[in-house]
Amino acid sequence: MGSIVTKSMEQSFRKNQELMIEMNKIAVERQIQMQNQMRERATAVQIARARDLVNWIGSFYALAALGMIVGFRRTRKPSVLVPLLPLTFVTAYHIDMAYGNKLHRLRVEAENIMQSESDLLALPCGLPTISSIDQARLKTHE
Predict the structure, then answer these.
(1) Buried b vs exposed e over 61-78: b needs ≥16 C-beta within 10 Å?
(2) Burial, 103: exposed, middle or buried (Cβ in 10 Å; 0-12, 13-18, 19+)?
(3) Which residue among 1, 18, 97, 113 is the one 20 to 30 A from 69 at the CA level?
(4) CB 87 within 8 Å of CB 61
(5) Contact status, residue 101 vs residue 50, Cβ threshold 8 Å
(6) Nearest CA to 95 among 126, 58, 63, 128?
(7) In whole angstroms, what is the distance from residue 38 CA to residue 56 CA?
(8) Where are the domains of the chain?
(9) What is the pLDDT of residue 2?
(10) Whether 84 contacts 68, CB under 8 Å
(11) Measured between alpha carbons, how far is 46 from 54 in angstroms, rounded to an integer?
């Protein structure tokens, strides 16, 4: 009689353990999906911000270029056009970030760093441990 109850309890324990493993797996998959969706949303906001900034910088660039060209026509001094060069680079950089493939190039470079220069990614003092987190938590309570 005792062995029947023991076998039944062991089977129930195994089923429960398998169920818990499956539930943990689903929870981890959901967490990964949630973090990925949050990352995608944050990236979309960054791109939108860059595109909005391009509108402002482009407007400033157009007005400044127009002013410099008018100033050059009146004074015939080429030094009036000098600020146009750095402004062109700044505007081109922001346009590339907002509408070009700069994000793709950044991602490729980040992957290269992760593969060939992973020592640069190490955290100071290594990864936090449960004991270091608990110690810091207890210090804040004192």
Answers:
(1) beeebeebeeeeeeeeee
(2) middle
(3) 97
(4) yes
(5) no
(6) 58
(7) 27
(8) 2-122
(9) 57
(10) yes
(11) 12
pTM above 0.85, yes or no: no
Q: Which helix (H) or strand (E) holds 61?
A: helix 2-75
C-alpha span between 114 and 133 (Å, rounded): 26
Phi first, then psi, for residue 39 (nearest 5°) are -65, -45
pLDDT in tens, 36-77: 999 999 999 999 999 999 999 999 999 999 999 999 999 999
Give dist(CA 84, CA 72) in Å, integer. Answer: 12
The token duo for 59 is 């407007």
| Alpha carbons 32 and 133: distance in angstroms, whole number | 23
Handedness of CA 36, 41, 45, 47 (dihedral sign): positive
Residue 62: which of 78, 82, 89, 84 has the closest Cα?
84
Of 62, 108, 119, the residue nearest 88 (C-alpha) = 62
**24: its two tokens:** 């943990």
3-state per-residue secondary structure call for 111-135: HHHHHHCHHHHCCCCCCCCHHHHHH
